[in-house]
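Field log, afternoon session.

UNIT: design team B
ACTIVITY: writing a sequence onto a fixed backbone
BACKBONE:
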């Protein structure tokens, strides 16, 4: 028998020996801690560690799940290859020591203090209860505290007041008013339920309204809600009353103009 066929016979042996060495060199799979469901046949698994979270499944007694983490009285378990859930400790019996899995979040990890909030707005603006117009604006906010935001805003609109009878010395005539209006303000916003997905707030501030070439000091008060649709994006709607005095010296009048606002905010 030639040397070449002998070497061919040895190739399978070399292949299997190399495969065995590679298998031995693999790191061992980390030991998984397990819990077994022990509450009859109705063990509720939720999407988060609390009764207020949505239900993702009800499982029978005896089901065993790997545990990922523990938060207070809840286990974060691996339900299947693509889904995790949370189950209360009262529904489980521990098959391992779970003390090392206790979840202790950093209270400052998700703080918004020092963050900026950029908002673009579209609104309906009611001028002197006689004219309704579309207004476009932008805002830049800064979180002084987790529930207090300091915000600068600027908004533009074109006011079209309907024709009115104007009396002159010799005749009566109809006149329509049309002018651009810019109003800006520095506002303080206080969130009532900070840190939640839907956050109501109250707001107020002072600034100036510029119309017909004149600048009038103004103040505003409002309230609204911010709904977070992602970790850094939110939809915002609110109503705000702008108060200022306008007109000539002989015919000064108070204006209470309402603005109905919807906007999109981005946390920077």
């Amino acid at each position: 028998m030639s040397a070449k066929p002998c070497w061919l016979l040895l190739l399978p042996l070399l292949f299997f020996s190399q495969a065995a060495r590679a298998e031995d060199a693999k790191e061992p799979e980390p030991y998984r801690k397990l819990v077994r469901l022990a509450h009859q046949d109705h063990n509720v698994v939720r999407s988060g560690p609390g009764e207020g979270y949505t239900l993702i499944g009800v499982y029978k007694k005896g089901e065993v799940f790997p545990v990922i983490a523990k938060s207070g009285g809840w286990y974060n378990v691996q339900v299947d290859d693509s889904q995790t859930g949370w189950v209360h400790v009262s529904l489980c019996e521990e098959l391992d020591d779970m003390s090392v899995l206790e979840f202790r979040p950093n209270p400052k990890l998700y703080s918004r203090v020092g963050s900026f909030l950029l908002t673009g707005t579209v609104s309906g603006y009611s001028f002197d209860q006689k004219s309704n117009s579309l207004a476009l604006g932008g805002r830049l906010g800064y979180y002084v505290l987790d529930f207090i935001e300091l915000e600068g805003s600027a908004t533009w609109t074109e006011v079209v007041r309907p024709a009115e009878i104007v009396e002159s010395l010799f005749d009566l005539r109809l006149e329509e008013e049309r002018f651009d209006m810019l109003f800006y303000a520095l506002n303080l916003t206080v969130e009532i339920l900070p840190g939640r997905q839907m956050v109501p707030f109250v707001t107020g501030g002072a600034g100036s309204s510029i119309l017909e070439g004149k600048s009038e000091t103004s103040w505003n008060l409002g309230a609204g809600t911010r709904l977070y649709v992602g970790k850094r994006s939110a939809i915002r709607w609110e109503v705000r009353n702008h108060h200022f005095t306008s007109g000539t010296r002989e015919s000064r009048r108070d204006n209470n103009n309402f603005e109905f606002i919807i906007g999109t905010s981005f946390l920077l």
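LOG NOTE: Helices lie at 3-25.
NEXT ACTIVITY: expression trials, pending approval
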